[in-house]
Amino acid sequence: MIPYGRHDINQEDIDAVIDVLHSDYLTQGPTVPAFEQSVAGYCDVRYAVAVNSATSALHIACLALGVSSGDIVWTTPITFVASANCALYCGASIDFVDIDPRTSNMSVDRLSEKLAQAKKNGSLPKVVIPVHLCGQSCDMKAIHKLGTQYGFRIVEDASHAIGGKFRDEPIGSCRYSDITVFSFHPVKIITTGEGGMALTNDSKLAKQMQLLRSHGITRDVSELSQDSDGPWYYQQIDLGFNYRMTDIQAAIGLSQLRRLDEFVSKRHVIAKRYDSLLPDLPVVVTWQDPESYSGFHLYVIRLKLEEITNSHLKVFKELRNKGIGVNLHYIPVYRQPYYEQFGFKAGYCPEAEKYYSEAISLPMYPRLTEMQQDEVISALSSVLKKC
Ligand SMILES: *Cc1c(COP(=O)(O)O)cnc(C)c1O
Hints:
By secondary structure, the protein is α/β, with parallel strands linked by helices.
């Protein structure tokens, strides 16, 4: 089976882990801060807080922005559940903004309309979480402008997008947001096994997230409510978690980061080749903003169902039967059974549901060979029987 995504681990990554295993620190040593500084440097952002997953990063990002019960958070329905769950962890409620059918990212027009309506109802969101689906940035300039107008804060879920750019700025620079989150899960662009990071230019947010990732405990004298009892002393000043990244993970991340640009450019080569091979088939490829640069975590096509005899499900199953590990990113989050309790019904975001009925993620990862890619195309051609 050709998988839809795959990590790329080389001998340098392995050696980096072995070095940590021979060192004094397996966790909370020098490698996590080194990885944080390297990512911050790469993204041209002031602070980076490494954690054990993007899910944890989203959670502490929301907490640092003060999200709590009574607050409302908005995200896109076409994302992994973690982008929405983070609001629920904080006791807030969640709502969804329909997608732009061209990019499948959160639609700025729908966002704008929904904000105007929410203002009338007194139900404006505290935080909006745009997700850079497949690695292509949302229109952050426009979303930021709405944020200023309506007074919401912004967390970019850039789990798909490290190595990409919005206009000329690296995704992660937080030029148009409060916090940006990356995932280092093995299917993502670079990996640490499990891992994530939250980036920000705001020193207070950075400090709060550092506190929350490690039990809410501080040893910083300036933060203590009383004089230290002695050299062993620390204080818990907030309710935090153990969301720490290990030095073992950070070593892989640091080593992977050196190949990030190469990974993303390989993904672009593969995407261009798909773009050139697909036009004869009854599918729509995702529109790419020529002014931005995608991380290309995923390559999603949409079937032109009216031009083919097979159903979406049949095409998907037949591709799997032919050894093509296609996938579907994503089921609209509010269609999950857990979300029924919040009153969401079928038809809530029509563009997202249409997307879900047509989308297929084709295999996309740096080591995908031309031969494998040809196999994907030929399997696709044979299952897309035209009417
Ligand atoms: C993978 C992913 C996450 C969660 O990442 P983890 O590191 O596995 O917690 C969150 N949001 C999106 C959009 C993702 O793709």
